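Reminder to self: tokens first, then the designed residues, so the page reads top to bottom the way the pipeline ran.
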């Protein structure tokens, strides 16, 4: 290889690196603007509203659809993600006949302090402000996917009187089943961090946090006495189905625990098995309503 060729390769690599850094800062944020979302709902003859828990728009950003007089389905997304991960549920007219539906941008994602990951405890404190603000004195059912699983678990541990049920979709709740993934620390504590695109940066950080935080919530399951349903695919390569057995073992004091294991399913069950999950959610209105 000649000297000119080496110089060209170095220059090409530097240009590629610079372009990637620019791309990483501006793309892959996994979020949709409020105006665009309103247009999509309007095309289906539906209304959706967007709010923050703080008047200055620095609090938790969330979407709300449906009648305020109905019980609530409260969705918490995984990592990375934003409220619109559950857009198809918020657009479903069958669900909207029975529920008001709220979906939040967890801290670090969407329009809630994008880019800055928080510990599990901090996230729950902030998300519960949405619960308090939107309290209509009707049953509120928590639904969490993936990392949203431990978030709703801890919400129920901290505020056991506020919720009617938990539905944990492919939830990563067991600290003992978490892969080590030491490589993640390189993208948190070294300059390599700038190479992580968009929402993957806070995602990487919070996964590191949560691997430790799960040991904390491991000691608090006695507080959960409301019905809990685990829905998990037995072929999930991101979050092992062993999390279900862990959860059931931690909740032996709770007679309202149910598990639905989907044969052949992977991690993305909220979208790939929408009808199955929708059927379960519709049952919440009558089976698990908190009086």
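Designed residues (291 positions):
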């Amino acid at each position: 290889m000649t000297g000119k060729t080496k110089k060209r390769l170095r220059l090409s690599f530097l240009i590629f690196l610079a372009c990637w850094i620019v791309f990483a800062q501006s793309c892959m944020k996994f979020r949709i603007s409020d105006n665009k979302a309103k247009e999509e709902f309007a095309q289906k003859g539906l209304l959706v509203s967007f709010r923050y828990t703080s008047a200055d728009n620095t609090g938790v950003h969330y979407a709300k659809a449906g009648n305020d007089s109905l019980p609530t389905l409260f969705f918490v997304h995984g990592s990375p993600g934003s409220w619109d991960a559950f857009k198809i549920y918020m657009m479903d007219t069958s669900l909207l006949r029975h529920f008001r539906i709220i979906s939040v941008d967890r801290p670090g994602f969407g329009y809630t302090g994008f880019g800055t990951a928080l510990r599990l405890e901090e996230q729950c404190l902030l998300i519960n402000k949405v619960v308090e603000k939107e309290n209509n004195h009707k049953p509120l059912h928590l639904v969490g996917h993936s990392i949203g699983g431990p978030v709703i678990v801890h919400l129920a541990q901290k505020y056991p009187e506020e919720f009617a049920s938990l539905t944990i979709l492919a939830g990563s709740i067991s600290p003992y089943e978490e892969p080590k993934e030491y490589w993640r620390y390189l993208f948190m504590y070294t300059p390599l961090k700038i190479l992580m695109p968009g929402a993957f940066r806070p995602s990487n950080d919070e996964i590191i946090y949560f691997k430790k935080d799960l040991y904390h919530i491991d000691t608090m399951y006695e507080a959960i006495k409301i019905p809990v349903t685990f829905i998990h695919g037995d072929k999930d390569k991101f979050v092992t189905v062993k999390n279900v057995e862990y959860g059931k073992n931690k909740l032996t004091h709770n007679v309202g625990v149910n598990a639905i294991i989907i044969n052949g399913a992977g991690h993305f069950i909220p979208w790939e098995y929408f009808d199955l999950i929708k059927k379960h959610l519709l049952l919440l209105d009558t089976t698990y309503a908190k009086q």
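The CA atoms of residues 142 and 234 lie 23 Å apart.
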